[in-house]
Design brief:
This protein is an all-alpha fold. It is built from 4 helices and no strands.
Length: about 100
């Protein structure tokens, strides 16, 4: 019982801390922040796979499966968003095509 309450407390504290840190980041630094957080998402995914690997009951296996599923989606989505953000900084080729005519 005490371990469960401690886990909930740590989860709530981590969520609050993360929100406070992210909300104070300037807009210009969001792309590097996303790249760094993708590394953390990969670690979360590995942790979820380890938890699923040691799960013994059906409930633990179901929770572990969803943890792996959500962790993988989070990591992949982070890389997709980072790639799209970096595309905005590349020069467009449309001006070059129009000048040649």
């Amino acid at each position: 019982m005490i371990e469960g309450l401690a886990a909930i407390y740590i989860f709530m504290l981590a969520g609050f801390t993360g929100y406070e840190i992210i909300s104070k980041v300037p807009v210009i630094l969001h792309t590097p922040l996303m790249s760094g957080s993708n590394f953390v998402h990969g670690i979360v995914l590995v942790g979820a796979m380890v938890a699923l690997g040691i799960a013994e009951t059906t409930t633990e296996q179901v929770i572990g499966f969803f943890a792996v599923l959500l962790g993988a989606g989070n990591a992949v989505g982070g890389y997709v968003v980072t790639e799209r953000m970096l595309e905005m900084f590349k020069p467009s080729d449309k001006k070059k095509e129009g000048e040649g005519s």
